[in-house]
Design brief:
Helices cover about 55% and strands about 15% of the residues. Strands 1, 2, 3, 4, 5, 6, 7 and 8 form an eight-stranded mixed sheet that branches. The protein has helices at about 20-30, 50-55, 70-80, 100-105, 130-145, 160-165, 175-185, 210-230, 230-260, 265-305; strands spanning about 5, 5-15, 35-40, 60, 85, 110-120, 155-160, 190-200. The protein folds into two domains: about 5-230, Alpha-Beta Complex (Spore Coat Polysaccharide Biosynthesis Protein SpsA, Chain A), CATH 3.90.550; about 230-305.
């Protein structure tokens, strides 16, 4: 592997049934980054993607477990480089932006640079529905984990070795981009964005993304990571909600008891006590889990810091 500005660069392309497009994608990145090794991770395609990619000059590795998250986990584990450039194999991302993204990463001392998608003039590759969904999900992540990204779901990213090798990669499918983004925000890894052209898919290929199905899975991933990474905020919110419900149910019962000495609505009283106990349990979980997460975050940070950053030459 040759070096770009003193760093080994690997282009990593997850692919599933992209035979009509993968050869031109490989050729595009080989021309844009002749110093880089180009890897195609074929997700058990049935249309000959692996053979086409190998003929085009890529190093091909087959991943049998279906799902983009599974492929990314394997890519990060198997490829050794200083800088990783990840893109899709469908021809929608512009290889010409590769050097600008890597230069931004090196010059800014960053660990992640996201290629923010901009549809070509008059093009409809980046559909309005997908754009609106991306804005909604990106905004949700920004409100929970902090601002920092405008195109959270882009699959075009330049990544440092220390980011890649400290990333746990727990997702199985298209929610992997969400996990990549939240990991960077939680790690407080320096990151940036570069605008890139986003074109139409190559003829003969089709999107594997299910707008509603994958959108709901991504939303579920955000909520799951909110619970795992911000337990104090998550469980105290539940505790506060339980407290309000308990007071709403219990105060009238208490007032009635003080006035009459009777408790005629036992089910309501029992429900109020139940919600209050649930609120207390959630508050205890918030305190305990926050200490656990703090220790885990420190361990991840130490692993991150143990890996050298790319050299800017």
């Amino acid at each position: 592997m040759d070096q770009y500005r003193g760093n080994r660069v690997a282009v990593i392309l997850p692919c599933y049934n992209e035979a009509p497009a993968v050869a031109s994608v490989v050729a595009g990145f080989r021309a844009a980054l002749p110093e880089a090794a180009v890897y195609v991770f074929d997700n058990a395609s049935t249309d000959g993607t692996a053979e086409v990619a190998r003929t085009a000059g890529a190093r091909v590795i087959t991943v049998t477990h279906r799902g983009k998250g599974n492929v990314v986990r394997r890519m990060f584990a198997d490829v050794e480089a200083d800088i990783y450039l990840m893109a899709d194999g469908d021809g929608t991302y512009d290889p010409g932006a590769a050097r600008a993204m890597i230069d931004a990463l090196l010059d800014g001392g960053l660990d992640m640079v996201v290629g923010c998608r901009a549809s070509e003039a008059g093009g409809d590759a980046y559909r309005p529905g997908h754009r609106a969904g991306n804005r909604t999900l990106t905004g949700t992540v920004s409100r929970i984990f902090g601002d920092g990204f405008t195109d959270m779901l882009s699959g075009y990213r330049a990544l440092s070795r220390r980011y890649v090798k400290s990333f746990p990669a727990l997702s199985k499918g298209f929610e992997i981009e969400t996990e990549l983004t939240i990991h960077a925000l939680e790690l407080r890894a320096p990151h940036g964005e570069v605008m890139t052209a986003y074109g139409a898919r190559a003829a003969g290929t089709h999107s594997k993304l299910s707008t509603w199905g994958d959108g709901l899975r991504i939303l579920g991933t955000i909520l799951r990571l909110h619970m795992l990474e911000r337990p104090m905020e998550f469980y105290l919110t539940l505790a506060f909600a339980g407290l309000l419900v308990s007071l709403g149910l219990g105060v009238p019962v208490i007032i009635e008891y003080l006035q009459t000495g009777l408790v005629p609505r036992f089910p309501t009283a029992i429900a109020a006590v139940g919600f209050m106990l649930g609120a207390a349990v959630c508050a205890a979980c918030a305190i305990i889990l926050d200490s656990v997460v703090t220790g885990r975050r420190e361990a991840k940070r130490l692993v991150y810091l143990s890996i050298p950053a790319p050299r800017a030459r």
